[in-house]
Write a structure and sequence with these properties.
Blueprint lengths: L5 H20 L2 H8 L3 H7 L3 H14 L12 H19 L6 H7 L1 H4 L1 H27 L9 H22 L3 H13 L3
Pfam families: TetR_C_13, TetR_N
GO molecular function: DNA binding
Protein name: TetR family transcriptional regulator
Length: 189
């Protein structure tokens, strides 16, 4: 019989609990019950709920697929494929739960420094990946050079996160892809 990896079970189930309840409302008891492990085993693997949340954010960030940004074709098409992929990722986890990064960013002031740093690092890495693609598009003359590529990348990321947050509140994600398309059209040179 295979041995159960308690740490992995906690991480896997805690992500769902955090998505449904948010950082503040989720208790260690909620997490251990969802994982089907004794509450005491939590502290064998994590010093705090904050440490677990930071680990979940880091894993979520590492699992982000940036391959569309580095593919072939015009930069705007690559950005569109990438952002559409992220919309699909959010949709797959449940529109009502939004983006995991947005959920933790919203709880940032009370979730603690470690969680805020993990979210900030994830968002910075994401913006950095998009910045390189935007710079390529600007060099090719397809994306406006009126603004620096890093500023445009943050704009696109904020647009996606904001539209996803609104979709979380309304339960309707149908306009998120339209808003991304509008933003990308506005970046055309």
């Amino acid at each position: 019989m295979p041995r159960v990896n308690v740490k992995e079970r906690l991480i896997e189930h805690a992500e769902d609990v955090f998505r449904r309840k948010g950082f503040n409302a989720a208790s260690v008891q909620d997490i251990t019950e969802a994982a089907g492990v004794p509450k005491g085993s939590f502290y064998n693997h994590f010093a705090s709920k904050q440490d677990l949340a930071a680990e979940i954010v880091a894993r979520y960030a590492r699992a982000t697929d940036f391959s569309a940004l580095h593919g072939e074709g015009p930069a705007l098409d690559r950005l569109h494929r990438h952002l559409t992929g992220q919309i699909d990722r959010i949709r797959a986890s449940g529109v009502e739960f939004g983006c995991l990064l947005g959920t933790f960013a919203g709880d940032g002031t009370t979730a603690g420094q470690r969680v805020r740093e993990s979210v900030r690092d994830a968002l910075d890495d994401w913006a950095g990946a998009m910045t390189r693609t935007i710079a390529e598009g600007q060099a090719a003359g397809e994306i406006t050079a009126d603004r620096p590529p890093a500023g445009l990348a943050v704009f696109l990321l904020d647009l996606l996160e904001g539209a996803t947050l609104r979709a979380k509140a309304t339960g309707d994600q149908s306009s998120v892809a339209d808003e991304v398309s509008i933003a990308l059209d506005a970046l055309r040179a």
